[in-house]
Automatic annotation (TrEMBL):
This is Disease resistance protein. It comes from the Eukaryota. Gene3D superfamilies: Ribonuclease Inhibitor.
Protein backbone atom coordinates (compact mmCIF):
# COMPACT_ATOMS: atom_id res chain seq x y z
CA UNK A 1 0.00 0.00 0.00
CA UNK A 2 2.95 2.28 -0.52
CA UNK A 3 0.95 4.28 -3.10
CA UNK A 4 -2.03 4.87 -0.80
CA UNK A 5 -2.62 8.62 -0.84
CA UNK A 6 -5.96 9.34 0.86
CA UNK A 7 -8.86 7.83 2.79
CA UNK A 8 -11.84 7.16 0.56
CA UNK A 9 -14.33 6.05 3.19
CA UNK A 10 -17.02 7.84 5.19
CA UNK A 11 -15.94 9.00 8.65
CA UNK A 12 -18.35 6.61 10.40
CA UNK A 13 -17.15 3.51 8.48
CA UNK A 14 -15.37 1.85 11.43
CA UNK A 15 -17.53 2.35 14.55
CA UNK A 16 -16.20 -0.79 16.31
CA UNK A 17 -12.54 -0.68 15.23
CA UNK A 18 -10.29 -1.28 18.27
CA UNK A 19 -6.79 -1.45 16.78
CA UNK A 20 -5.42 0.51 13.83
CA UNK A 21 -1.98 -0.13 12.33
CA UNK A 22 -0.65 1.81 9.36
CA UNK A 23 2.92 1.59 8.16
CA UNK A 24 5.02 2.54 5.18
CA UNK A 25 2.37 4.72 3.49
CA UNK A 26 4.65 7.59 2.58
CA UNK A 27 2.08 9.25 0.28
CA UNK A 28 -0.86 9.04 2.68
CA UNK A 29 -1.91 12.57 3.53
CA UNK A 30 -5.16 13.91 4.91
CA UNK A 31 -6.38 12.88 8.33
CA UNK A 32 -7.42 9.57 9.80
CA UNK A 33 -11.17 8.96 9.86
CA UNK A 34 -12.37 11.48 12.41
CA UNK A 35 -14.78 9.23 14.30
CA UNK A 36 -13.21 6.09 15.79
CA UNK A 37 -15.09 5.81 19.09
CA UNK A 38 -13.86 2.31 20.04
CA UNK A 39 -10.20 2.71 19.02
CA UNK A 40 -7.89 1.77 21.89
CA UNK A 41 -4.55 1.14 20.12
CA UNK A 42 -3.04 3.11 17.25
CA UNK A 43 0.26 2.18 15.55
CA UNK A 44 1.63 4.45 12.81
CA UNK A 45 5.06 3.99 11.25
CA UNK A 46 6.75 5.59 8.23
CA UNK A 47 3.81 7.80 7.24
CA UNK A 48 5.47 11.23 7.23
CA UNK A 49 2.56 13.13 5.62
CA UNK A 50 -0.27 11.66 7.69
CA UNK A 51 -2.21 14.00 9.93
CA UNK A 52 -4.29 12.82 12.85
CA UNK A 53 -6.61 14.27 15.40
CA UNK A 54 -7.19 12.12 18.45
CA UNK A 55 -9.95 14.34 19.79
CA UNK A 56 -12.74 12.05 18.55
CA UNK A 57 -10.99 8.89 19.69
CA UNK A 58 -12.00 9.10 23.34
CA UNK A 59 -10.68 5.77 24.65
CA UNK A 60 -7.29 5.54 22.91
CA UNK A 61 -4.82 4.37 25.53
CA UNK A 62 -1.81 3.49 23.33
CA UNK A 63 -0.40 5.51 20.45
CA UNK A 64 2.82 4.39 18.83
CA UNK A 65 4.29 6.82 16.30
CA UNK A 66 7.51 5.75 14.61
CA UNK A 67 9.04 8.17 12.07
Amino acid sequence: MSNWAEWLIPDEAFPKLKTLAIWNCKKLTEDLPCLLPCLTDCFISSCPELASSLTLMPIVNKVHLIP
